[in-house]
Amino acid sequence: MQLKLLLLAMIVFLAGCRPIAAPTATPVPTPAFAHLLKQYEAWQTQALARIDAYDADPTIFADSTWRLQTAAILADAEQTVRALAERAGRNRDVYFGLADSYAWAAESAEAGDVFSFATAGYNIRLQIGMVE
Question: Which residue segments constitute the domains of the chain, with CATH numbers given?
Answer without folding.
Answer: 28-131 (1.20.120)
